[in-house]
Write a structure and sequence with these properties.
Blueprint: E1 2-8, H1 12-23, E2 27-34, H2 41-54, E3 62-64, H3 108-118, E4 123-127, H4 132-140, E5 148-154, H5 169-172, H6 175-182, E6 189-192, H7 194-197, E7 201-203, H8 204-212, H9 216-236, E8 240-242, H10 244-253, E9 258-263, E10 265-267, E11 278-280, E12 292-298, H11 300-312
Parallel strand pairs: 1-2, 1-4, 2-3, 4-5, 5-6, 6-12
Antiparallel strand pairs: 7-8, 9-12, 10-11
Helix pairs in contact: 1-2, 1-9, 1-10, 3-4, 4-6, 8-9, 9-11
The structure holds beta-D-ribofuranose and calcium ion.
């Protein structure tokens, strides 16, 4: 199985990604690091423990990470969601029992640095929250990239923003960290932006099918995705929602789920209007370094199939 570390800000979509990574037989989840993002880091850690306990995988270590961005204390100051209301797909604790396990004493940065330094085979990094932990680990030791075969990031948007008109939340919430990670020189960096995740929309019919599986993961996924559908439906009226983070873990076992183009990507860290924007250079004549495999498309039907198979077993 492919070894990976998930870095999360759990979060309803993170929760689905965690269950997928813990349960898919093709994946070996070495540990989960938490960061503030959708909610504060105490809550993302508590939510992460809830999820692993609920599916019977409390043995997978949870390592608490950073409570703030690397360079600016204020972000995310206010989410553009109405906290706790139905518009907020992450509001409050996840609707599953409180965890009985606790996070490890080792912090997220220490875990990342030690695990990557000690690795005898390459490890895949999958950050699906703000990139504060990953950037800080790389600041401690830039050569950590050598232990990583691929980093798969949920973040950014080329034609789509969510937290602002031009920025996606994970990148916007710690733009300096994202800039550092994008330019760190990873062997392969795959960026799964909103352009892709907004194509892998999940509807109530899939939630019903997940619920019918009768497994803890199926029941929880139905609840979490149902919460997302309720929130997105208020905005779009479409009866569906993206489940961003799970597209990254699904990609690890089914690379054809996304279609990517190898392009130069930089993060805007200076403009008040477009801070946190991922600037994707699609010009054929560009001579800038192509640092990211950017996903512009994702296959919703394939994602549904993978969710049902993985959570039904
Ligand atoms: C991303 O931001 C987080 O809030 C979600 O969990 C997802 O990773 C979407 O912009
Ligand atoms: Ca997330």
């Amino acid at each position: 199985p492919r070894k990976l570390i998930l870095d999360v800000d759990t979060g309803t979509d993170d929760a689905v990604a965690i269950m997928f990574a813990a349960l898919h037989p093709g994946l070996d989840l070495l540990g989960v690091t938490t960061v503030r993002g959708n909610v504060d880091v105490e809550a993302t850690t508590d939510n992460t423990l809830r999820v692993l306990d609920w599916i019977g995988h409390a043995e997978i270590g949870v390592f608490k990470g950073l409570a703030r961005p690397v360079a600016r204390a204020g972000l995310p100051g206010q989410r553009h969601y109405r906290r706790g209301g139905t518009m907020d797909p992450h509001g409050g604790a996840l609707p599953i029992p409180e965890p009985s396990s606790t996070h490890r004493d080792t912090g997220a940065i220490e875990f990342l640095v030690e695990t990557l330094r000690a690795a005898t085979e390459k490890i895949t990094l999958v950050p699906v929250g703000p990139l504060s932990n990953i950037a800080t680990a790389l600041a401690v030791d830039p050569s950590l990239t050598e232990a990583v075969d691929e980093i798969v990031i949920m973040g950014g948007g080329h034609a789509v923003g969510n937290v602002t008109a031009s920025a996606e939340f994970n990148v916007w919430a710690d733009p300096e960290a994202a800039a550092l990670v994008l330019s760190a020189g990873f062997e392969r960096l795959t960026l799964v932006p909103l352009d892709a995740t907004h194509q892998a929309l999940i509807g109530q019919d899939t939630c019903d099918a997940l619920e019918k599986l009768g497994t803890p993961a199926g029941t929880a996924a139905a609840r979490f995705i149902g919460k997302r559908i309720a929130a997105y439906d208020e905005i779009t009226g479409g009866g569906t929602a993206p489940v961003h983070d799970v597209v990254c873990t699904a990609y690890l076992v089914a690379p054809e789920i996304i279609t990517t183009t190898h392009l130069p990507v930089e993060v805007d860290t200076v403009s008040p209007l477009t801070i946190g924007r991922t600037v994707v250079d699609t010009r054929p004549q560009s001579t800038a370094e192509r640092n990211a495999h950017v996903a512009f498309g994702a296959d919703a039907a394939m994602l549904v199939k993978l969710l049902l198979a993985t959570f039904g077993a």
